[in-house]
Amino acid sequence: MSSSRKALAVVLAAGEGTRMKSDTPKVLHQVAGQSMLAHVLAAVAAAGVENVAVVVGPGREDVAAEALRRAPHAQTFVQAERLGTAHAVLAAREALIAGCDDLLVLFADTPLVTSRAVRGLREALAAGAGVAALGFLAADPFGYGRLLQDEGGRLLAIREEKDASEAERSIRLCNAGLMAMDGAAALGWLGRIGAANAKGEYYLTDIVEIARREGREAGVVLADETEVLGVNDRIQLAQAEAVAQSRLRRAAMAAGVTMIAPETVFLSSDTVLGRDVTIEPHVVIGPGVSIADKAVIHAFSHLEGATVGQGATIGPFARLRPGAALAERAKVGNFVEIKNANVAKGAKVNHLTYIGDADIGANANIGAGTITCNYDGFFKYRTEIGENAFIGSNSALVAPVKIGAGAYVGSGSVVTKNVGADALAVARGRQVEKAGWGAAFRAAQAERKKGGK
Q1: Residue 442, H or E segment
Q2: Who's near 335: CB < 8 A, 6+ residues apart?
Q3: Does position 383 have pLDDT exceeding 80, yes or no?
Q4: Are 16 and 134 in the same domain?
Q5: For a designed S-S bond to 216, which of 16, 196, 211, 305 qualifies (C-beta 3.0 to 4.6 A apart)?
Q6: Of 360, 431, 374, 368, which is closest to residue 394 (Cα–Cα)?
Q7: pTM for the full model?
Q8: Could you tell me the residue range of the domain that residue 16 belongs to?
Q9: Catalytic residue among 29, 87, 298, 351
Q10: Are residues 245 and 393 in the same domain?
Q11: What is the pLDDT of residues 235-253, one digit of tens each?
Q12: Has 351 been annotated as catalytic?
């Protein structure tokens, strides 16, 4: 396919998604940590398509905003009435008038589509087809439109389930919905599509027969059934998630990641994993996570918006929230939460600790039960802990506060003032001992109980 061919992708995102039973637009529901719309736009971009038009429903500024966040140069158009797929494409008439060699039509609720499928459709056009449809062999074709071919494999027509004959319904080759067509002819073909069908809608699929009547060839590009899974309800959303996770796990392991029980690990589409990373069972990695070579993520940990340095160890039962940045060989142990904090090289936060809005120096040691008190109900404040500092167990560091390099904080301290380098800070009540108090107390209470008082 020539790189000089200009392509336009029209992504249809105006569906109401009533079967999702949700206040969130269907195409904004997430698969592997990002919206279904984002997945489709990513596939379009990876296929080298630079011009994008996204068709949204009335009042759906949230969908338009997501489209522009993911594809800043995209145009958005509103489909005021829902009169079928061809009508939806024509909502982007202004983009079509601008002209292109290849016009691609995709659906924002098919999040598993790959750039390979998009390129395949473009290649069919480059080879001379006027129209190309993405098809798949369905295990159960019920409900899908059927692709009707001649003996040579050329596409004759696409027949919707409700309009198909009994013989046509027996065909397993089904329409995935995605199509490509000659950009120079597409606008004229779209304008000739009528609504004489069982649903009274303007079917994009009718463009095959219109193109053939003009002597143009139509072809089929095959895809795997899982790749073209459409999401219309929560059950199909879960199915799409399962397929996406399987892809991500396989890609990670093929790149050198060890997963002891991969079926229990959940990744995001943008997860970055280095070589020789080990991920133990029941780990959830949300969006925005990067994990460097040789890091170990122990079981039952949850990471989101975090950076993990080379050779660092996390967990088990650790939580890294957005802004957590761990340097080389840093250690975050069990039942530790890190949020918007930098943990420098070799520093240890081993257990039962909350570190938020903080900077921890190299080789510092944070004792069990330590918390940074970073919020006063109105504002967040930072805590700075110098390199080689030692924070005793069950200490509370009330921000803003600085602990100097090499300083010690005694266990159980509530630190409200800066601590100098190499100093010892102890901030707790003085221990008082009263000899014999326990025996006297017990005797008095026993006498009181005996007297019924």
Answers
A1: helix 437-450
A2: 317, 318, 351, 352, 353
A3: yes
A4: yes
A5: 211
A6: 368
A7: 0.90
A8: 7-228
A9: 351
A10: yes
A11: 999 999 999 999 999 999 9
A12: yes
